[in-house]
Each structure stands twice: as C-alpha cells, then as structure tokens.
Description:
This protein is of the alpha+beta class and about 180 residues long. It is about 50% helix and about 25% strand.
Amino acid sequence: MMRSLALPSIFFITLLLLIGLFFFIRASVKDRTEKVTLMAPDAEDVILNQMESYLKQRAYQLVRLNREQAQLTFEGIVRPSIGLALFLMTLAAVSLLCLSLVLAIQWPAVGIWFTVLVALSPLTVLFYWKKAERAEQVLLKVESGAEPSASESKTLVTVTAHRDELAALKSALKYRPVPTP
C-alpha cells in the first residue's frame, strides 16, 4: 500500500516545484518601482546638480526637465544579468531533470528519453533576456521643507525608481529617509 502512494506523492511535489519555479522566473523580470522621500541638508540647486551628476555616472540620461516644479526625469537601459540568466537556467534544468526522473520511474518503457525535457531549460534564458532589458525611469522632485523635529529648513527629495537603484542612491549620497507618519 505504501509503495503505491510514494510515486504519486513524489510526482505531486515535483509539480509543486515546477509551479514555484515558473513564478520565480516570472518574478525575475517584474517591475519593482518604488517611491521614497529623502531629506537633504543642501539647497535645491545643489541637490539637483548632485543627483544629475550621480545618475549620469550610472548611465542615465536626462530626458525631461521641469524647472518650475524642480522635477527631473532620467532614463536608462537596464541590462540583463548573465549570472541571473545562468542561475535561472540551472534551476530549470534541475527541475526538469527531477520531473524526467519521476516520469521515467512511472513509465519505464520510455525511460531515459524523458531527460530530453532538460533541453527546454535554455528557454528560461530566452524569456529572461528578452524581458529583463528595458528602459527604466528615475523621477526626481526637489522641494523645500521643514524637518518636523527642528526649526531649520531642509530640502526634500522625492525619488521614484527601481528599488535597487534607490538603495544605491541612498548609500552613495547619504541622504536620510523621511520618517513616515
């Protein structure tokens, strides 16, 4: 009785693995744009110049400038990662190998021919490579504001960008995030 339930159980777990892998591969190209407000001690013009030079160093180009609203829009091309592409392909290959082994045990007449499924793993690289390379925008809005705990005036910088770009920006420019109420 136990032996008859083992193979369907393993097959079910392998299918769950493949479903999880599918969603993981889809999430690898998902847009992760976030908005953060930072507090800077400098004047608006100084901050705009700092941000512009920082983003130009990171291969972004200024595409729109609105001086009245102190708003800048930068655009850059995000390139796919070779390491992530190889990682995704390896995960897909291992998952498809597991599926082929379960299928080979279930249908021994076909046997080792199920390992041909592993040849589908490079499709993950194609999917990732086509979807990951895209133009991303960084929106900057600079405005004067007052820090809640002090009477001195600070400058608020609202940045809308990919979360990885926001993390790099925070560490490079050392601006403090505005606490959310």
